[in-house]
Amino acid sequence: MLTKAYAQETFEGDGVVVKRLFPIPKRMNFDPFVLWDHFDISAGHGFPDHPHRGFEAITYMLEGGMHHQDNLGNDSFVSKGGAQVFCAGRGIVHSEMPTGRMPSVGIQLWINLPKQLKKINPSYQEALEKDLAVVTFQGGNYRTIVGAGSIIKLQTDITYQHFHLAKNGHYQLSFDQGSHAIVYVLLGSLAIGKHQVDATQALLIDPEKQQDLLIKATTDSEFMFCSGLPHHEPIYQHGPYVD
Description:
By secondary structure, the protein is mainly β. It has strands spanning 2-6, 8-12, 16-22, 33-41, 47-52, 55-63, 65-70, 75-79, 83-87, 92-98, 104-112, 123-127, 134-137, 140-146, 158-165, 170-174, 180-187, 189-192, 195-198, 201-205, 212-217, 221-228, 237-238, 241-242.
């Protein structure tokens, strides 16, 4: 099943407006994924100290950079093409603040922890642009943030990639039967099945028997792709916590 979805603007943190795919009233989650925010943060704004519990989060930078600090003692900076990742587990307090005068743009993705891992110790990891290899193919390329070959390791097995696709280029995505997958367009326009998906729009994929999907770019395009098997457990999300 292919469902077209639209991001909704909402306020978050200290003066930040994000384009949120979920959770929103009409779509609370997409198991195992529980939050998708496309942020564009101007100087002087960001996400001061706040708590989390019960999930893993990836902040992937498209432009600018982000300074992460937490109560575990981590203090790091990641810029374009890099990622900051934490497992909140039983609880973590952290901040993410942009640096410099230029906007900081990226995607924050939350992945639910299965019930048996909700109380594990929190942890943090990072990957710089140089740490995440880019694979080139005819008509485009992709960087694997999480998945085969990445240094980032999560408690939930997912694939997470950033694609560039030239006009008239195409790429065939493959994913496990029964998984849930998201294609989110950052720039340009894609033809996926019978759907045209433009910037800040997404296609939510529940493949059932379908295991491959051809993506065609109708203009120079950039998109995110992630997929993972659902936990099939109730998701109780309230603010910064996922219990």
